[in-house]
Amino acid sequence: MKRFIKNDRAEERLRPINWASEISVLAQRYGERIAVSDRHGTLTYAELMSRATAIAQALAEHGIGPGQTVATIFRNDRNAVSAMLGVMMAGATEVPLNPALSHGDRQHCCAVARVETILSVAELSDANLGQLSNLILVDHIEPAQTRWTEDGHIEPEAPSRIVFTSGTTGKPKGAVHSHRGRWLANLLLRASLPHRPGANSRILLMTPFSHGTSLMTYAYLCSGASVELRDGVHPESVLPLLEQGVCDSMFAPPTVLAKIVDAAEGRRITTLRTIFCGTAVLKPTLYARAREVFGPIIRVTYGKSEIFNPICVMEPDETDDWYSRGSGDACVGWPAPGVEIAIHDVDGQPVTGSQTGEVMIRSLHLMAGYRTTQGFQPLRADGFHDTGDLGYVDEVGRLHLTGRIADVIKSGGYKISPEEIERELGPALGHSEVAVVGIPSEYWGEVVLAAIERPPDDWQERLSPVLAAMTGYKRPRLFITVEELPRNGIGKIVRSRIREFSLANYTFRDGPHPRLEPEAASSINTRIDLG
After folding, report:
1. What mean pLDDT is reported for the chain?
2. Which of 125, 258, 411, 497 is the most exposed place for a label (fewest CB within 10 A)?
3. Could you tell me if residue 297 is inside a domain?
4. What is d(CA 524, CA 528) in angstroms, rounded to the nearest whole number?
5. Does residue 240 share a domain with residue 176?
6. Residue numbers of the domain that contains 258
7. Residues 417/435, Cβ–Cβ less than 8 Å
8. pTM for this entry
9. Tell me: the pLDDT tens digits for 417-431?
10. Which among 476, 485, 480 has a CA at the least distance from the CA of 519?
11. What are the distances in angstroms from CA 514 to CA 195, 417, 477?
12. Domain tally for the chain?
């Protein structure tokens, strides 16, 4: 397991990673503290590590260790945590998959990642999991009575985790993270937390464990704190936890935050220290409503599957200062520890000043590259990752996001950012969410369409003065109203589904004055399924 690399100065040794040693220490140090609370009750550190050790032993008995790939498919509960730790202890490559994925998407991810074994539970085993690979049910494994004794030394540059992108712009790609990158990312994530978690800290996590929830879970466990895992957002059970002070922080991307704020409107909850908000842009209207309920405690972050810890951070006081200025711009703050940001133009050259371009990121804990149907694709030679996000860096070093390259609408010879239009329309619609897409047009190239989720009865009157004040080529020419916009497992709106739904349920009349005609009355005010 020893490896040497050469540099200009001397021969330098890369030390191996030993997850088993680090994880075992948690049981010794925090034994009877509560580690996990979930729908089943509570689990101490000692109990959690016994379960993780048993899973690692079961993997070893199946010949699974360094170099082998294991998919983990769990809801948000103790089994997900035990499986993650067990795979780490065994030194295998973990592929966390959201149980909400379709069978086809699971097949795609398992094929791309070359999954050999799946860890799951009996309640999910009827979802064709066994057809994908060897299946081990962790709830059939008895907790271990002894400590993990296998040699835990792992090649630091070997793959540790393959995290699949959300697939909003095409088939998901697997971001390959090394053991060294994962170890560094955990240290940096913990170092960048606004307060140090400890024995009396508990974070509420409701989003899928296969994404950011697993990262926050490990960071909190490494600090001797506990995690409250909830499988989805259910305000009727979440609000009592917050009001009673059971949790002192929570992770709530905008979609989750909106549901909780809707249910809590009119209340004042002062028990939380921090709300971590990321995965999508936090709009000013939602921030103002959340502030009324919780106070100025929201911490904005910008992250991606390609990097473990946040790319940028705005602490609560910085977030409150920004939103109090009334700007509709999507500021996500300063680069987090260990992260370098550059902005490149369409020719791949660095821009100057506050010009807009593609956001590029580089760090020691960035992924090694992607796995796709074409095989492994390493990072660029200079180590930068092109995010596909558009943005600029202001005069004080903060990153502002202006949209996605793939989402840019080209209409009448102009390039239009849908996010910019959404920010202009949003305040007039109150609690209703709006998403903007382009509809293919022979006359215009694309026509701007706005889809409004559960609009107020007078939405047209509300939007009229806003539309009149907008630049002409940015003004939406088409509108539809729906009960629910399509979102993926982490709450991001899937724009392609809006476009597909509109063309399937309406007849598009092209020309200088484009319009939509519904195919049937039932196509109005309906839910757009992800399929």
Report:
1. 88
2. 125
3. yes
4. 11
5. no
6. 233-364+381-404
7. no
8. 0.86
9. 888 888 889 889 888
10. 480
11. 53, 20, 7
12. 3
